[in-house]
Amino acid sequence: MRTRGTTGPAGMGAAGGPERRAARIADNATGARGRGMGERQLALINRIARIATEDLDLAPMLRRIVDAVREGFGWEFVAFLSLDPLRRRTVCEAVSTVLDSELRVGTIVALGYGVTGEVARTAKAVLVRDVDQHINYVPAVPCARSELCVPVCHRGELLGVLDIESIERDAFSGQQELIETIADQVAGAIAAARLHQELARRAELLEMMSEISHHALQADGLPELLARIARFVHQRFEVLHCAILLEDRARGELLLRAAAGESVRELHYGDAWPTTRGIVGRGWRLAQPQWVPDVRDDPDHDPGHPGVGAELVVPIRYRERLIGLVAVQAATADSLPLEVRNMLRALADQVAGAIHLALVNQRLLETVHLFEDKSEQLESANEQLRVANGTLERLSTLDGLTGIANRRQFDDSLRTEWRRARRRGDVVSLLMIDIDRFKAFNDGYGHLAGDECLKRVAQVLADHLRRAEDVVSRFGGEEFAVLLPEATPERAFAVAEELRLDVLRLRIPHAGAELGQVSISVGVASAIPNAGLQPAQLVDMADKALYVAKLDGRNLVRRFEPAPEVAGGSAGGAAARGSGATESDARAEHDAAAPAIELPLDRS
């Protein structure tokens, strides 16, 4: 009779979570029975931890991890498959095997297909002691006799699965807990690598913006500026064709102002493009970006090159007014992935000011030729260009809604103050602030009222803090962070209490809150930086204190207190407890508000 393999909840062993599993593995290493095996397990865990810190490029890091697992145990096959939830599939990212395998890097496995698809669908581990007895087994290697597949989860999100197969039956007896611990390590490493990739992408975007600004400053007039931008896009992103079209307000037409790449259509500078024609015309009429991953499926596509398979049209706006379009054509949709499309949208926003100012410069130059005494106007326009670029740089560190520092500026300030405090032996204090029941506020009063509430709370926080070194930032959603360098724990707690009272004085009605008005909860943490403590741990401590403030009833300030069993050791701990909301309510609200890797989520 065929039976399913042993299963368990994702990220959980027979009893307890990652910390308890790691503790039991450490205990096994000191016991009389299995001392050598336990030491080998700990050595493998340490090796994976080193890999995760040494290599932040995701693909090579995953290859090294699966190699380490296979070599550490002598199993014949180890693979990691990442989850693609939108397409309901997994994709093989790394394989280590000594046998021939049908599963290779890039192989796609549908959710529910085979053991890996089953684990990806259910987020529960599956242990197959004998593949002949498992109804859903699909061989990755032809001579496999047993399989263990565990989910890889980070903060409740399923990232993928770790799949291991052996030519021996029941080869994984007693090993599931260790593999789940390794899966936890892999999840953290993947999250860190993805964060590294995002930071690298943002750095690349800033570099690109700087390069565009350089082109704008070096260009001699609008035609040269637009030609430089078109060539930049064509060469930087390796697309087939890039065109820039601008509005001629006098004629009410779109005019081609620059192009780079191949096209079968004879296009010349100044040619008119009908606003009813093609995907470009549709983008102008709708004043919205147009992304067509397969032009064959779009009835508005106007062929300009036989090799075009995908097209992107991005509006160029200056002060909310549509002034032109950037149209990009590529061979396939793979040439214009999401990150490239986002970069092109950001580029269009960046060049809008440059184009506008270039138009101003052009008009000024024409005026200079007619009126030699008007040269001061040209200098003024150039100064505007320099100021605009400086303004763009400053705006990159501000939150667009509230006008206070954004998350990027907070991270930079925390690193800077952390290094300074470590050199001087000073204390660094941090307040994590969350608007209570904010989701209910949004649901009850609407998102426009929610935005206004965020702006008023942010203004109160910023107005209260007077020291130049203090930093008030929007951390994510309805959560704020206040960095207080050289502030003692007592001073930080007093500031937090003052901010809580200041928000209450706003008297913003909130029918969904316990007080009937908007309030905040605050977590306070302080630390003296040292070699064993990282800035992220200070954030984690303040966040834990914030969670306790929520748990104790909201509209409270709670200070981080290390747990008794770890006092003086790690950054783990809690804050003083009181009475109020249930732990499940507070945990749900806290988890809903916790910022994700890519974008922060709203707290309720």
3D architecture notes:
With 604 residues, this protein is α+β, with helices and mostly antiparallel strands. The chain is built from 15 helices and 19 strands. The chain has helices spanning 18-30, 35-54, 58-73, 114-122, 176-218, 222-236, 278-286, 338-370, 375-395, 407-424, 438-445, 447-464, 489-506, 535-551, 583-593, and strands spanning 6-9, 77-84, 89-97, 108-110, 124-128, 146-154, 157-166, 241-248, 253-261, 272-273, 290-292, 310-318, 321-330, 428-435, 471-476, 479-485, 520-527, 557-561, 574-575. Helix 12 (447-464) packs across helix 13 (489-506).
Helix and strand layout, with pairings?
Blueprint: E1 6-9, H1 18-30, H2 35-54, H3 58-73, E2 77-84, E3 89-97, E4 108-110, H4 114-122, E5 124-128, E6 146-154, E7 157-166, H5 176-218, H6 222-236, E8 241-248, E9 253-261, E10 272-273, H7 278-286, E11 290-292, E12 310-318, E13 321-330, H8 338-370, H9 375-395, H10 407-424, E14 428-435, H11 438-445, H12 447-464, E15 471-476, E16 479-485, H13 489-506, E17 520-527, H14 535-551, E18 557-561, E19 574-575, H15 583-593
Parallel strand pairs: 17-18
Antiparallel strand pairs: 1-5, 2-3, 2-7, 3-4, 5-6, 6-7, 8-9, 8-13, 9-10, 11-12, 12-13, 14-16, 14-17, 15-16, 18-19
